[in-house]
Amino acid sequence: MDENQLNILFSNGILVDSSIKDVNISDIDGLINSLKENNVGFLDINTFHKLYDGETSTDSSVEIIKNYEGEISEAKPANWVNYFNDRFNRLKMILMSKDRSGLLSLANIKNMPQSSDVKSIVMVSSVSISPVKKYTVMDIEDNTGSYKAIITNSNQEILEDQVVIINGRKYNDAIFVKDITFPDIQMKEKVKQEIDDAFILFLSDIHVGSKLFVEDAFEKFVKWINGGIPEYSNIAKLVKFIVLNGDLIDGIGVYPDQEKELAITDLKGQYDKLYKFLDRIPKNIKIILSQGNHDATHIAEPQPKLDKTFAENLYKLKNAVFLSNPYQVNLIVGKSKINLLSYHGFSITYYANKIPKYTKMDAEDIENIMKIQLKSRHLAPSHGSTQLMPLPRDYLVIEETPDIYATGHIHKTLASIYKGTVLINSSCWQYQTSYQKKYGMNPDVAKIPVVNMRDKSFQILDFLGDKVQIYKKGLKEG
Ligand SMILES: [Fe+2]
Ligand SMILES: [Fe+2]
After folding, report:
1. What is the distance between the alpha carbons of residues 135 and 217, in angstroms, rounded to a whole number?
2. Ligand nearest 412 Cα, by number?
3. Of 67, 70, 39, 33, the residue nearest 52 (C-alpha)
4. What is this structure's pTM?
5. What CATH code would you report for 60-70+191-470?
6. Which is more confidently placed, 385 or 37?
7. Which of 113, 159, 223, 351 lies at a CB distance of 3.0 to 4.6 Å from 369, suitable for a disulfide?
8. Under a CB-based contact definition with an 8 Å cutoff, are residues 311 and 345 in contact?
């Protein structure tokens, strides 16, 4: 708001709260008319959003494809069997849509003569690599039994519990594998949509409540989205969705001695502080919130939407959409539809620890782990890579190929592309914790990956320095 607009408001008998000095007003007469119609003599940010930029936007919407509604299941053996059967069957369907010729069950293969060519859809229950790395031995299973498979000269990365098609020849009660087909995602064509620029912002790991929460940078973000900062304001004006991908608060008792690093020591207080920031975001932008391992819920995945007991105030936001972790939705603006898969990212750490070449956990390592997930069509392919709830349905199977796969948790930023699907990891809003220091983890702080819905082009904005600027590290063009 400029000086002239302030004077016009004063001359119309309207007092102004300092909270709205950063907002951008293009139609001052329209604003004054609606203030008068509603008998408003004092204008603060809440009243401004209610009256000026509408209740919520009607030209954008969120269509749910997959969302866990919070059903509970006990971790007993029968439930695990059902869970793994569901996972196997869902992935089997995906594999059969790629190749269904000549498929045999393992029971059939056992009865076939030596040297037969065989092909089967199997779950890999264990993988061991010979000491000289000349071959890999796998225990494989399907609904009819188990068997062994041996791969020589393989440079394929095969991981426990992946479901794949193996194609090979039977010798001495094992299958000597010629090739492996992964369920993998489909190629997404880069299609230009018939809409104007419309942007999605990706934030995660805000960790509100921590002493290390980067409050000034988050404040800068709120100012920017309200048009109060000139750099890249062309993007700010056209943001339609903000994706908040878990670890919204720092939580309590998440890691040893965390209380020493907490500025707010109760969950409700932490969510209330987040609410005060989010309430200042223009109401025509839809904010999608989901949980991570620091939020107030069980750690086993899938995690339900935010708990109203703690996040009561957030539920007052008319532009907020509450979803589970993970979820899959279509983000819609006009005729444009973007399929978004969102997952907080807990299993990524497991693979970074398990696979020696990814232990650096830099942007490229994270990108490669995200590719493993997409190739496996599962967000936590190996059992033990995250804690799971054995529900009758496996919500972590990736049934539809997304336009964007967004994750967080690692506190690193990344924007890249794999087979036409945009890969996003959305940094964090917390300086290095003592826990991260102990493990040599250096977070990327206050970066926001941005995707244009029109053509899926992407960039990363940096809110940490004096100015909002483009951040190049972690950005890879496809
Ligand atoms: Fe986090
Ligand atoms: Fe996390």
Report:
1. 51
2. 1
3. 33
4. 0.89
5. 3.60.21.50
6. 385
7. 351
8. no
CA of 409 to the centre of ligand 1 (A): 5
| 263 alpha carbon – ligand 1 mean position (Å) | 16
Strand, helix or coil at 290?
A: strand
pLDDT for residue 54 is more than 60: no
* CB 101, CB 120: distance < 8 Å: no
pLDDT band at residue 9, thresholds of 50, 70 and 90? confident
Beta bridge partners of 327: 67, 342
Sign of the Cα pseudo-torsion (345, 350, 353, 358, in order): negative
How would you class 268 by CB atoms within 10 Å of its CB: exposed for 0-12, middle for 13-18, buried for 19 or more?
A: middle
What pLDDT, on the 0 to 100 scale, is given for residue 22? 72
| Strand-pair category, 199-203 with 447-452 | antiparallel
Phi and psi at residue 81, to the nearest 5°: -60, -45
Question: How far is Cα 407 from Cα 422, in angstroms, rounded to an integer?
Answer: 11
Q: Separation of 15 CA from ligand 1 center, angstroms?
A: 41
Res 371: pLDDT: 98
Q: Using an 8 Å Cβ cutoff, are 358 and 365 in contact?
A: yes
For the chain, give every domain's residue range: 3-51, 60-70+191-470, 100-181
Q: Which residue has the higher pLDDT, 14 or 295?
A: 295
Residue 323 tokens, joined: 């979803």
293 Cα to the center of ligand 1, angstroms: 7
Residue with tokens 């250096």: 442
Residue 288 reports pLDDT greater than 70? yes
pLDDT score for 10: 86
pLDDT value of position 189: 84
Q: Which CATH number applies to 100-181?
A: 2.40.50.140
Say how far residue 7 (Cα) sits from the centre of its chain.
44
Q: How many CB atoms lie within 10 A of CB 84?
A: 17
Query: Residue 389 above 80 pLDDT?
Result: yes
CA 431 to centroid of ligand 2, rounded, Å: 14
